[in-house]
Write a structure and sequence with these properties.
The complex is a heterodimer. By secondary structure, chain A is an alpha+beta fold. Chain A folds into three domains: about 1-215, Aldehyde Ferredoxin Oxidoreductase,  A, domain 1 (4-Layer Sandwich); about 240-445, Orthogonal Bundle (Aldehyde Ferredoxin Oxidoreductase Protein, subunit A, domain 2); about 455-630, Aldehyde Ferredoxin Oxidoreductase Protein, subunit A, domain 3. Helices cover about 40% and strands about 10% of the residues of chain A. Chain A is globular and about 65 Å long. Chain B has a single domain (about 15-160), classed as Alpha-Beta Plaits (2-Layer Sandwich), CATH 3.30.70. Chain B is built from six helices and eight strands. The chains are: A alpha+beta, B alpha+beta. The interface of A and B includes residues 116, 222, 241 and 300 of A.
């Protein structure tokens, strides 16, 4: 790690508990070791820790749903402090949805409770002989068989375990029946409304017979420079409740429905369109949602923003009376615009099913949208499903969603593992080109952005390590804010550099781990580095954290290469190249293959990767201290 | 905490921490900061203000209500608790407190607890005992840290007269809103 030696490490670092637990679920053995000061400095936390551990310890080519896959819990140095949004944790493994680097981040009370219990990281291997949950109760670690919890939803599971402990503040991350049956979309739910949703981490828990992990901690957390940290944290709390985060607090992320619709980039009818008359006329907007349905905004532990918008279906509703669901823009897309549905209670019910029974609601919504389009085209029928499923379905969309989650009926059999598998399964049944309607990259379903006329983001979303994702580099901002001409293919290297710069700092945000919504509360990267120093005592600089972000992205990319990644995997769905919108600002626009490839090469060049293959050069790896990767990038052929 | 402009009732300032459940998001920042300004470390189990969340939407925090003839004081077999006549705050004599928890059982609001390390009773004293290091330099005096940090300004320090007055104004707006609208027009 020659390049990082200039950052000295004090004898004692704070913030981190530096405790790693190794849990072998097969034989029930739990052992404890210490994360070194250097490891903490160089890999920062969540995502960074995982990049290193998965590279070192996840067997190349492993079947993601086998006992040999490594399942990692990790957080950074900040949980339990009052740094805004610091109670976050990450889960990581080889993903059953993508066959590549799997990661999902959640919040609620888990990070803070785990930190107060004195944990920094847990590495799970093996498979329990029966359904079990893991308990971390301060220094007591144990595994409890729980066959009675089989088939229970996440909400019931959480309540049940909290009752057992007679502690309403026990942090519980659990899987529902979808995770238990190893749906590749399986998510992990905690604190009822918070999900580590993406890339099927719930399925990995299910494959290990691990129903839940619970944390309770009573240890105080000290920071390296308490007086200065308190001062800065108080400032950040105030800023985090100011203009920088207003859109997340007030209308919440659904404010984006209107603004993205104006840009022609809010996906409608499974990405056929980027605008909708129901948004134009105000029927389906963040304002309507908030004025008519949202009853409360709730915060995760230590969060000043409180983005969790709780919507309520009134008790007079004929189908789902008195139902509460946590709603954000992604769900207004998946179960709303993408399925052509503008009935709010239908969306709330679908979201509640996903959160409680345990699948990623983005992947679930996009899979439902694929089914609606296939139905619309007559490629699947009422005879297959047992009911009609046109765009705009309500009660039937809920029925479909429940079957998909539980793996029941045609919906479950075909769509129960996401769009990529649905495409493969339908093609096996003779429905040619079914995969075309699955809106995914690397197997992960697209978030709420259309890619027609989003040329920078087409690259940003496609190069994302975990598959289609807006949170690995946020490159949609480059198009939406007009940093680059979103319709042209000029300045490939400049765009690549801009994406890389964002991606490096996003990797640090995911390693700290704090919420992306607080990106704007720091004056600059130097202030982000400062807060790390005040908590840990390690005097890092903005340059240092940017470089570590670079190294973390590179190492997780190397994981993907070892699992068989090729340049073709960094590619948006074909639809964006072949079909254009019929209305709105991107009307008539399609992505051009040669233009896209030029921009992609520009990104590879900016990253110091071979511009043809997209594989990091030895020189780049050496400059980032990743010498240990060199010579080990031969694909293991494992993309399962 | 006897300041100008603060109303006394029979020589007693009856001010306490009030949290608005409409504004409270349940973020727990108050609990963390409470433990921090008293002990120098973040540990909400040692807080004197207690967040309660009842799913799906009820979030609020509670602290000492400064009851008259406080049950916690009466219940203490060691006579370790005493009510300050001026401020109404409950003062714990750590030398006398033996951690028996009778005060916790006596309190109708569940706002007492025992410090996880010292096992001495903890109760809100409006930050009279916070560490000097964490006094806001701009303010220059002790002030409840939870109020200062609450991101949603959901926490306030009020006396019973203020609370009644605010409630009455709300009620009148609700009941006689029509007249109010006329004056606005």
């Amino acid at each position: 790690m020659s390049k990082t030696k200039e950052i000295p490490i004090p004898d004692k670092i704070l913030g981190y508990s530096q405790v790693r637990l190794d849990v072998d679920l097969t034989d029930g053995k739990i052992s404890k070791s210490t994360l070194s000061n250097e490891f903490c400095r160089d890999w920062i936390g969540g995502y960074g820790f995982a990049a290193k551990i998965l590279w070192d310890e996840c067997p190349a080519g492993v079947d993601p749903l086998s006992p040999e896959n490594v399942f990692l819990y990790a957080h950074g140095p900040f949980p339990a402090t009052i740094l805004p949004t610091s109670s976050k944790y990450g889960v990581f493994a080889k993903s059953p949805l993508t066959g590549m680097f799997g990661m999902a981040i959640s919040s609620g009370s888990v990070g803070a409770q785990a930190r107060r219990a004195g944990i920094n990281m847990i590495v799970f291997k093996g498979k329990a002989s029966e359904l079990s949950y893991m308990v971390v109760d301060d220094d007591d670690y144990y595994i409890v068989p729980c066959p009675d919890l089989a088939g229970k939803g996440c909400w019931d599971t959480e309540e049940h375990i909290r009752e057992e402990f007679q502690d309403q503040r026990l942090a519980v991350m659990s899987i529902g029946p979808a995770g238990e049956r190893m749906s590749r979309m399986g998510c992990i739910t905690n604190d009822r409304n918070r999900q580590a949703g993406r890339t099927g981490m719930g399925a990995v828990m299910g494959s290990k017979n691990l129903k839940a992990i619970c944390f309770r901690g009573t240890k105080g957390v000290k920071v390296a420079n308490p007086v200065e940290f308190y001062k800065l944290a108080r400032k950040l709390i105030k800023v985090a409740n100011g203009p920088a985060t207003a859109k997340y607090r007030d209308l919440g992320t659904p404010s984006g429905i209107t603004s993205y619709n104006k840009l022609g980039m809010f996906p409608i009818f499974n990405h056929r369109e980027g605008t909708w008359e129901k948004i134009d006329d105000g029927t389906f907007t963040g304002d309507t949602l908030n004025n008519d349905w949202v009853v409360k905004k709730v915060a995760c532990s230590q969060c000043s923003i409180a983005c969790d918008h709780i919507a309520k279906i009134p008790k007079t509703h004929p189908h789902w009376p008195n139902l509460y669901a946590s709603i954000d823009v992604e769900l207004c897309y998946g179960f709303g615009t993408a399925t052509g549905n503008s009935d709010w209670p239908t969306i709330f019910k679908c979201v509640q099913l996903c959160d409680d029974l345990g699948i990623d609601a983005i992947s679930g919504g996009v899979s439902a949208a694929m089914a609606c389009e296939l139905y619309d085209l007559g490629l699947i029928t009422k005879k297959d499903l047992g009911y009609e499923l046109p765009f705009g379905s309500t009660v039937n969309l809920v029925k479909f969603t429940e079957e998909m989650i539980l793996g029941k009926g045609f919906a479950g059999e075909i769509f129960g593992d996401g769009t990529k598998q649905a495409g493969i399964r339908l093609e096996e049944k003779g429905i040619k080109n079914a995969s075309y309607y699955g809106m995914q990259i690397k197997g992960l379903e697209l978030p709420a952005f259309d890619l027609h006329g989003m040329n920078s983001f087409a690259v940003g979303e496609s190069v994302s390590i975990r598959g289609a994702c807006h949170l690995r580099n946020g490159a949609y901002g480059l198009d939406a804010k007009g940093t680059f001409d979103r319709f042209s293919y000029d300045k490939p290297l400049e765009r690549g550099k801009a994406i890389k710069e964002l991606e490096d700092i996003y990797a640090i945000i995911d390693s700290y781990i704090v919420c992306k919504f607080t990106r704007g509360i720091y004056e600059n990267d130097a202030e982000m580095a400062k807060v790390f120093e005040l908590v840990t005592g390690i005097p890092v600089t903005d340059k240092f954290i940017q470089k570590r972000g670079d190294a973390i992205v590179n190492l997780s990319k190397c994981f993907n290469i070892r699992e068989g990644w090729t340049r073709d995997d960094d590619h948006p769905p074909e639809r964006f190249f072949k079909e254009s919108h019929t209305r709105g600002p991107a009307k008539g626009v399609v992505l051009k293959e040669d233009g896209y490839q030029q921009l992609l090469s520009g990104y590879y060049e900016a990253r110091g990767w071979d511009i043809k293959t997209g594989i990091p050069t030895d020189e780049t790896l050496k400059s980032l201290g990743l010498d240990f990767v060199i010579g080990k990038l031969k694909p293991a052929g494992g993309k399962k | 905490m006897s300041k100008s402009g603060i109303k006394k009732r029979g020589g007693v300032v009856h001010q306490f921490i009030i949290v608005d459940p409409n504004l409270c998001t349940g973020c727990e920042t108050c609990e963390s900061v409470c433990s921090f300004v008293h002990d120098g470390e973040f540990n909400p189990i040692n807080t004197r203000i207690h967040r309660v969340r009842i799913e799906p939407i009820l979030n609020v925090a509670l602290a000492c209500q400064k009851c008259d003839d406080a049950p916690c004081v009466r219940s203490c077999p060691e006579k370790a608790l005493e009510q300050d006549k001026q401020t109404g705050s409950i003062i714990v004599d750590d030398d006398k407190c033996n951690g028996c928890a009778f005060c916790i059982r006596a309190c109708d609001f569940g706002v007492l607890s025992l410090h996880i390390q010292s096992q001495k009773a903890l109760i809100c004293d409006l930050c009279e005992t916070m560490k000097d290091d964490y006094i806001d330099p701009e303010r220059g005096e002790r002030y409840p840290a939870c109020i200062d940090v609450c991101p949603k300004e959901a926490i306030s320090l009020k006396d019973v007269e203020q609370i009644g007055e605010e409630k009455r104004i709300d009620a009148v707006k609700r009941l006689f809103g029509d007249i109010l609208k006329e004056t606005e027009a």
